[in-house]
Amino acid sequence: MARDLDHILRTLRSCLASGEQLRGLTQLSAGYSNETYLLEGPDLILRLAPERAPLIPVAFDVLHQFAVFAVLATTPGAPPVPSVRYLEPDASKIGGAFFLMERMRGIPFSDWNAAEWALTESAAFREGLSRQAVEVVANLHQMKPLEVLGPVLSPLGELNRWRHCLDRFGGCPPLDETFDLLQRTAPAPLGSPSPCHGDLKLSNMLWEDGKFVGLLDWEMASNGDPRWDLAYMTLNHAGPHREGMPGMDASGFWDRDRIISEWEIRTARQADRILWFEAANSAKLSTIIMSGYLMTREGLSDDERYLEWEPLAYELRDRAYNLGQLDAQLSAA
Q1: Residue 221 is part of a domain; what is its CATH number?
Q2: What's the pLDDT tens digit per position in 149-203?
Q3: What HEC string does the chain produce?
């Protein structure tokens, strides 16, 4: 069922101090975790809990997200994030708890390919993007765990968090063998824990004139082993059992090995067992898409994109299993 945007507009106008400035509401995204809208006039972003069952239980708590943004904004060394402006926990007002935050300037990459605006620039420009991205992530991984992100999770604990997403469907046989392998071979924590963003894809980084300006979408953040984040980044690039994201082989962009080596230098950490973490992230992504497929099939979601993306879930599952086997072989050698 579509949202009643007129009702949301009327309610926001009545409860916000700047309500008279509100001219319209534009939906930016919906169907993954929380719904996102642009408030035209005040130029603010509305994050709203979903009407139907959330795709990822760990990612839809808007009250928690508000707290995370508030803490990050005042924590030295944290990446720039949008400032939060208003929190409404009463779900009855517009059909879900919500918060408002500033609309950060800047443009991202897409989820599927390198941005055209980056590909038309020089190799030096693209190298600057890579350098800044790794620097931002390395700085995050030198921070101490944040209380707002909860208890520290081991590599196995984070993996189990994603396997549990499938428990409401009674498990998922296509993924069970992959998770079994990764659980048996999970590495021990290495070094001190840090905050982990959890969704370090290029489309969550904002850029303006080649300068990094902000890191969005902390729904899946946790305290844990930063190799989870590093491996999520490297999945954009060519590596064992996969091709890179289209366009990321353009001159200037750092490749997988350069990203890993620079991260190690900047953090004084080691990227041991990075193949396991790449496998685990592939299983995580497969879980997200497979959960969406199962929810749509069972009528718990009306986002039909997941019916189309079922083959991608299996592709990611296969990649995860193959990477997990490769990691196990190399670890045993």
Answers
A1: 3.90.1200.10
A2: 999 999 999 999 999 888 877 778 889 999 999 999 999 999 999 999 999 988 9
A3: CCCCHHHHHHHHHHHCCCHHHCCEEEEEECCCCCEEEEEECCCEEEEECCCCCCCCHHHCCHHHHHHHHHHHHCCCCCCCCCCEEEEECCCCCCCCCEEEEECCCCECCCCCCCCHHHHCCCHHHHHHHHHHHHHHHHHHCCCCCCHHHCCECCHHHHHHHHHHHHHHHCCCHHHHHHHHHHHHCCCCCCCCCEEECCCCCHHHEEEECCEEEEECCCCCCEEECCHHHHHHHHCCCCECCECCCCCCCCCCCCCHHHHHHHHHHHHCCCCCCHHHHHHHHHHHHHHHHHHHHHHHHCCCCCCCHHHHCHHHHHHHHHHHHHHHHHHHHHHHC
